[in-house]
Give the backbone structure.
Amino acid sequence: MSSASLSASDAKLDDPLEFVPPIVFVVDDDISVREGLEHLILSTGLRVETFASAAAFLRRERPLTPSCLLLDLNLPDLHGLELQNRIVAAGPGMPIIFISAYGDVPTTVRAMKAGALEFLTKPLCEDALLNAIEDALQHSAAALAHEAQIRVLRECYESLSRREREVMDLVVSGMLNKLIGGILGISEITVKAHRAKMMRKMNAGSLADLVKMAAKLRYTSSATVMVPV
């Protein structure tokens, strides 16, 4: 695989924030492993940061850019599986690739069930590792793009008035304007006015778009949209 396939442009997000190149994190207490991985990853054109312990990595602020973590299973201060749990709890966006010389089947299964993208054994095959990194950064970019989209949708939803939210709730459930008016005790003309404002604030070009938006927002802390199932 050529280094071009791992270039920063491949992971660029459709996000209003200024683009920051993707980054690969390495957590391994073996300095020779860290240095070897750093050299290999830098040769692809990617950024890399290495850490000798889980504690050092946890002190690093989580980036708002596509990233992944190459994580040794047996660390001196915190087991790799425990660090994985903490990363997963912090939210999506940083896929984990375990690297270990001592991985057994039960441990590998546990790591994969907890969301690890790959479990590679040392000595590492460079092609397999670079392919895993490429896959991880694509997953990360997709997760961050989804988070950004949800963030924008929440902001749009929060801009709606109480009545506009009520109208949206009923519109996405498939009700016609006349029936919505009867339920809310307002005229059909008033329903149309609220509906137009709501569609504009949500940046929804059609009812289908609105239903998709409501589905993405369902049961979130900032939205209580009733979505048909």
About this structure: Residues 215 and 227 are 6 Å apart (CA to CA). The chain has two domains: 3-152, 159-217. Residues 1-18, 219-229 have pLDDT under 50 and may be disordered. Residues 126-158 form the longest helix (33 residues).
